[in-house]
Specification:
The protein folds into two domains: about 150 residues, NAD(P)-binding Rossmann-like Domain (Rossmann fold, 3-Layer(aba) Sandwich); about 100 residues, 6-phosphogluconate dehydrogenase C-terminal like domain (6-phosphogluconate dehydrogenase C-terminal fold). The protein is built from ten helices and eight strands. Helix 6 crosses helix 9. It is about 50% helix and about 10% strand.
C-alpha cells in the first residue's frame, strides 16, 4: 500500500488521545475538524448521517491539492439523503463528493473493536450522483475505487436511490427483524433467554447495535424499509396461514425454497483468527 499520512477527527478529546497513543495508527488526532482536514487530498466522513452536514461546514474551504480537487466520501448506510445534502456542500467548498458504503462491521462500536482486515473481501458500494458533475468524472471514481481496493474491498457502482432500495432488504430490514424478534420473545418471557441456543442468539445478534445510530438509519431510509417490511409481513402471513391450517407440505415447501435461496449466497470473506 502507498505511504500515506492519516489525520483523524473526533468530537471527544478522550478518543483523540486514545488514537494518538496507539503506536503508528495516525499522524494526528484532534477535536478540530478543520485542523484534521488541512492539506488532505481525501476526507472520509465516518459518523452518523445527521452530523455530516455540520462536519462538512466546519471543514472550511477545500482547496485543490496537487492540482486535484479534494475528494470527500462517507461510509453511511443510507445514500440518497447524503448525496443530495452533502454533495452540494462539498462542491461549495471546492471539493468533490462521491458516496461510499462498505458492507462490513458488526453490532459493536468503538475503537476497541477495530479490525485491520475489516474490509478484506467486503462488498463496497460507490454511489455516483445521478446527473451530478461527478457522474462522468472518471478520475474521481478511479481514485475512490483504488482506495477501497487497496483496503481489500470489492467495488460495485449503484445509483444512490437503488443503493437504498437494496440495502433496505439486506441490512436495514434484518436489523428491524432482529430487534422486533428480541422484543417479541424476550419482552414476553425474559427467562427464556437463559435457555436459548445459537439459533436465537445468531438471529438477534445485530439487535445489539447502537440504538441511536440505527434509529437514524431506519428513519433516513424509511420509505424503502417500509416497502420491504410490507413485503415481509405478507410473507409472514403465508407462514401463519400454513401453521393455522396445519399445512405440513406448505411449510416444507417454504423451508425448502428458503434453504435454496440461502445456499446461493456467496461465501463470506475469510477472517484472520
Amino acid at each position: 500500500m502507498p505511504s500515506v499520512q492519516l489525520a483523524a477527527w473526533s468530537r471527544r478529546a478522550e478518543t483523540a488521545a486514545e488514537l494518538e497513543a496507539y503506536p503508528g495508527l495516525v499522524d494526528l488526532a484532534t477535536t478540530d475538524p478543520a485542523a484534521a482536514a488541512a492539506g488532505a487530498d481525501a476526507i472520509v466522513l465516518a459518523m452518523p448521517t445527521v452530523h455530516m452536514a455540520a462536519a462538512v461546514e466546519a471543514l472550511g474551504p477545500l482547496p485543490a491539492v496537487g492540482g486535484r480537487p479534494v475528494l470527500v466520501t462517507d461510509v453511511g448506510s443510507v445514500k440518497g439523503p447524503v448525496v443530495r445534502e452533502i454533495g452540494p456542500l462539498v462542491r461549495q467548498r471546492g471539493g468533490v463528493f462521491l458516496g461510499s458504503h462498505p458492507m462490513a462491521g458488526s453490532e459493536k462500536k468503538g475503537f476497541a473493536h477495530a479490525a485491520a482486515d475489516l474490509f478484506e473481501g467486503a462488498a463496497v458500494i460507490l454511489t455516483p450522483e445521478d446527473g451530478g458533475p461527478e457522474r462522468d468524472d472518471r478520475e474521481v471514481l478511479a481514485r475512490l475505487r483504488r482506495y477501497w481496493e487497496l483496503l481489500g474491498g470489492v467495488v460495485t457502482l449503484l445509483a444512490p436511490d437503488r443503493h437504498d432500495e437494496l440495502v433496505a432488504g439486506i441490512s436495514h430490514l434484518p436489523h428491524l427483524v432482529a430487534a422486533s424478534l428480541a422484543r417479541t420473545v424476550l419482552g414476553r418471557a425474559p427467562e427464556s433467554g437463559a435457555l436459548s441456543g445459537g439459533g436465537f442468539r445468531d438471529t438477534t445478534r445485530v439487535a445489539g447495535g447502537p440504538a441511536d445510530m440505527w434509529a437514524d438509519i431506519l428513519a433516513d431510509n424509511a420509505a424503502a424499509v417500509s416497502d420491504q417490511l410490507g413485503r415481509y409481513l405478507e410473507e409472514l402471513g403465508r407462514w401463519k396461514e400454513a401453521l393455522d391450517l396445519l399445512d405440513r407440505e406448505g411449510l416444507r415447501r417454504f423451508l425448502s425454497e428458503a434453504r435454496t435461496l440461502r445456499a446461493a449466497l456467496p461465501a463470506p470473506p475469510p477472517r484472520d483468527l
